[in-house]
Amino acid sequence: MSDHDPFAPPPPGGQPGARPGGYPSPGPYGPPPDHYPPPGHYGGPGYGYDPAAPFGYDRFGRIYSEKSKVVAALFQLLLGVFGAGRWYTGHIGMAIAQLLTLGGCGLWAFIDGILFLVKDDRTDAAGRVLRS
């Protein structure tokens, strides 16, 4: 057991004990490197608006689409026999299939519309996640 009192004030000059070997003593800090933005500068790389993702990113880092999953679901539920939700999201092949089968006699269109509402991984034709 150590005889050091943990509640005693530190000695003048800092904490007691020597620095472990291999660690340099901290020196005065110089100016920041040139690649950091100046203080108060926001709008540079890594700050704010990203032109590659104008609607932002989801929690997994995937880019949001300009299309809405609520609008796609409404199109699909109301006009699903024509494949309207799939036309809206840009999935032309699936939209044509829904048009030719009348939305799978309405069943495919109804299930697809519900999935647009409850799933968070529905994408547009470019592979971007639909916004809420």
UniProtKB/TrEMBL annotation:
Residue span, TM2 domain: 66-114
TM segment ranges: 70-89, 95-118
Subcellular localization, as worded in the UniProt entry: Membrane
Main localization category: membrane
A GO CC term attached to the entry: membrane
Residue ranges of the region described as Disordered: 1-44
Biased composition, class Pro residues, residue ranges: 23-40
Keywords tagged on the record: Membrane, Transmembrane, Transmembrane helix
Pfam families per record: TM2 (PF05154)
Membrane topology, from the record: Multi-pass membrane protein
Name of the protein this chain belongs to: TM2 domain-containing protein
